[in-house]
């Protein structure tokens, strides 16, 4: 055997050995990935269950509310069937539109990592909103539809009033996402003066649920409270899309709603921009 | 006595770090009270007395009374619970339980006393306010025995909540997962804030015998509401708390005996 053949044989052996150890290493990755998926699968199931429970409580409360009135009666303009649809579709939509921008900003401020974003040539506001958009799209692809299927299977939910109504519902939910994301950005800006905003985020969580109309349609509020809610942008997050879904919007009102949506997106954008610039110029970094 | 001094030191240590951000602490207090009060607004707006007079025969004042009652037990529970919420992540996956085991104190008490959610105490005041207001509307006068019952049942309710979540935590000794199966159970607490009979039979059974959140507020509150049909359940509340505590501590001890460190 000549030297060349020897070395070829040797490298074949070493190739074989490295293939084996490679396989072992990559098997480890496969195993790891699988276990991760398994862990996420649990979170998947608990996430769906969580939404199912949230809707269940509301379902029984509404059933109890209508139990004293005659079959098919309506309260404040909603029949029981419409109310169940309102609550169920409202929570399904919430699984799409909610975002954690405020939490992300407060985390960046707390750890001092916010410094990195000061030197990056990207628009901080847009970056966070698009990032949340990615997360929301992921949730739609993997999370919202199984929630929807489960809820539709368990509860008697009405179909959208029409194809156009469904389209406007989807469009308005998207607008709701943008409005909430921008509001969360503003809440996140509070992290600069307060350093930690756990408490504010906690208060926000419930206030949004109430003011967005997720818990109760605006018709159930007393006049003084309804007036406040009508003036604020939060009704765009849940109430307005659900009005479209149920076919409760007159075609003459559509233009006004679109205008309101555009106006609030603009106002919140400039408010966010103003406070970000302000924070930017006064920033003190912690840790880092 | 020595243990008491040590736990006080744990508490003092926590207090120092929590009050580092005073502004946030105060905002947290207000925020927590908001959440408690927010649930009340939902009830007040929903059962306005005109278009909606009651939920399946339960009047506004009764529903409010039960809701306020539930705030008492859940406030005590949430004050002690933050470490139960992220127990698996902090103690098992990040391995902090090693440190706990090295100290000559009860492992569960150490875990509970390393972190608090003091803001939640705000809800005790919200809850008391609501119980007194709704109680006044219902014409309830409190005797000494009633006040003792209020205390005993609120503590029992907190013990039931703690036991359920300690038990769920003890599962993470066997099955490592960052979040585990606890989140839906936190949502189940909401069922216990409303009159139990509005739910279907299956849910009523679960809330009475499987995950006994019905004993957190509804059953003990019937003592004041004069609903005789729940009498046995009502006064069984402390016993249920005791039973839950036993199951939880057995589960915890078994879990601890199976603990293997993460090893890094």
Can you characterise this structure?
- The complex is a heterodimer of chains A (288) and B (264).
- Chain A has 288 residues and is mostly helical.
- Chain A has one domain.
- Chain A is 77% helix and 1% strand.
- Chain A contains eleven helices and two strands, in the order αββαααααααααα.
- Chain A has a two-stranded antiparallel sheet.
- In chain A, a hairpin with a 2-residue loop joins strand 1 (74-75) and strand 2.
- The radius of gyration of chain A is 26 Å and the shape is globular.
- With 264 residues, chain B is mainly alpha-helical.
- Chain B has one domain.
- Helix content of chain B is 69%, strand content 2%.
- Chain B contains 14 helices and two strands.
- A two-stranded antiparallel ribbon of chain B has the order 1-2.
- In chain B, helix 9 packs parallel to helix 14.
- The longest helix of chain B is centred in the middle third of the chain and has 28 residues, at 144-171.
- Chains A and B meet through helix 1 and helix 8 of A and helix 2, strand 1 and helix 10 of B.
Question: What is the strand and helix layout of this fold?
Answer:
The complex is a heterodimer of chains A (288) and B (264).
Chain A: H1 3-66, E1 74-75, E2 78-79, H2 80-97, H3 101-111, H4 114-119, H5 124-154, H6 163-189, H7 191-194, H8 198-211, H9 223-231, H10 239-245, H11 251-282
Antiparallel strand pairs in A: 1-2
Chain B: H1 2-18, H2 22-46, E1 54-55, E2 58-59, H3 60-80, H4 82-85, H5 87-93, H6 97-102, H7 107-113, H8 122-137, H9 144-171, H10 182-188, H11 201-210, H12 218-225, H13 231-235, H14 237-257
Helix pairs in contact in B: 2-3, 2-8, 3-8, 3-9, 3-12, 9-14
Offer a few descriptive terms.
heterodimer, A: 288 residues, mainly alpha, two-stranded antiparallel sheet, 11 helices, 77% helix, B: 264 residues, 14 helices
């Amino acid at each position: 055997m000549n030297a060349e053949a020897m070395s070829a044989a040797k490298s074949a052996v070493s190739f074989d050995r490295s293939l084996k150890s490679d396989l072992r290493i990559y098997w480890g990755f496969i195993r790891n990935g699988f276990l991760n998926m398994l862990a996420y699968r649990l979170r998947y199931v608990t996430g769906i269950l969580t939404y199912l429970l949230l809707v269940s409580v509301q379902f029984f409360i509404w059933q109890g509310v209508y139990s004293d009135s005659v079959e098919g009666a309506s309260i404040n303009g909603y029949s029981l069937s419409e109310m169940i649809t309102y609550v169920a579709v409202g929570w399904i939509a919430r699984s799409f539109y909610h975002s954690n921008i405020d939490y992300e900003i407060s985390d960046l401020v707390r750890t001092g990592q916010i410094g990195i974003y000061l030197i990056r040539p990207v628009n901080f506001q847009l970056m966070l909103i698009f990032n949340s958009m990615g997360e929301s799209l992921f949730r739609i692809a993997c999370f919202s539809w199984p929630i929807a299927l489960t809820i539709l299977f368990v509860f008697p939910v009405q179909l959208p009033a029409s194809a156009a109504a469904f389209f406007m519902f989807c469009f308005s939910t998207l607008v709701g996402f943008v409005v909430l994301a921008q509001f969360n950005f503003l809440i996140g800006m509070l992290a600069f003066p307060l350093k930690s905003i756990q408490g504010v985020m906690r208060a926000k969580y419930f206030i949004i649920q109430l003011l967005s109309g997720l818990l109760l349609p605006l018709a159930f509020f007393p006049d003084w409270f309804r007036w406040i809610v009508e003036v604020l942008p939060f009704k765009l997050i849940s109430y307005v899309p659900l009005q479209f879904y149920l076919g409760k919007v007159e075609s003459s009102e559509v233009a006004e709603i679109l205008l309101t949506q555009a106006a609030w997106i603009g106002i919140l954008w400039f408010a966010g921009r103003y406070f970000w610039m302000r924070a930017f110029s006064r920033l003190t970094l912690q840790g880092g | 006595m020595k243990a008491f001094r040590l736990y006080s030191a744990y508490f003092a240590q926590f207090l120092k770090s929590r009050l580092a951000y005073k502004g946030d602490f105060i905002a947290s207090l207000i925020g927590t009270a908001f959440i408690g009060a927010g649930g009340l607004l939902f009830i007040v707006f929903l059962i306005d007395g005109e278009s909606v007079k009651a939920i399946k025969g339960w009047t506004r004042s009764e529903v409010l009374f039960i809701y306020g009652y539930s705030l008492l037990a859940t406030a005590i529970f949430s004050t002690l619970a933050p470490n139960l919420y992220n127990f698996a992540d902090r103690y098992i996956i990040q391995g902090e339980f090693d440190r706990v085991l090295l100290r000559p104190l009860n492992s569960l008490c150490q875990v509970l006393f390393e972190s608090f959610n003091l803001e939640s105490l705000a809800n005790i005041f919200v809850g008391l306010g609501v119980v007194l207001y709704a109680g006044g509307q219902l014409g309830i006068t409190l005797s000494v025995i009633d006040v003792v019952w209020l205390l005993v049942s609120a503590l029992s309710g907190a013990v039931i909540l703690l036991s359920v979540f300690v038990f769920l935590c003890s599962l993470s000794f066997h099955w490592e997962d960052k979040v585990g199966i606890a989140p839906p159970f936190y949502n189940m607490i909401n069922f216990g804030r409303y009159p139990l009979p509005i739910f279907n039979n299956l849910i009523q059974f679960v809330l009475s015998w499987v995950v006994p959140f019905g004993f957190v507020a509804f059953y003990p509150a019937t003592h004041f509401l004069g609903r005789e049909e729940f009498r046995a359940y009502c006064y069984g509340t402390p016993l249920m708390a005791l039973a839950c505590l036993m199951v939880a501590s057995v589960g915890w001890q078994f879990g601890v005996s199976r603990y293997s460190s993460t090893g890094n």
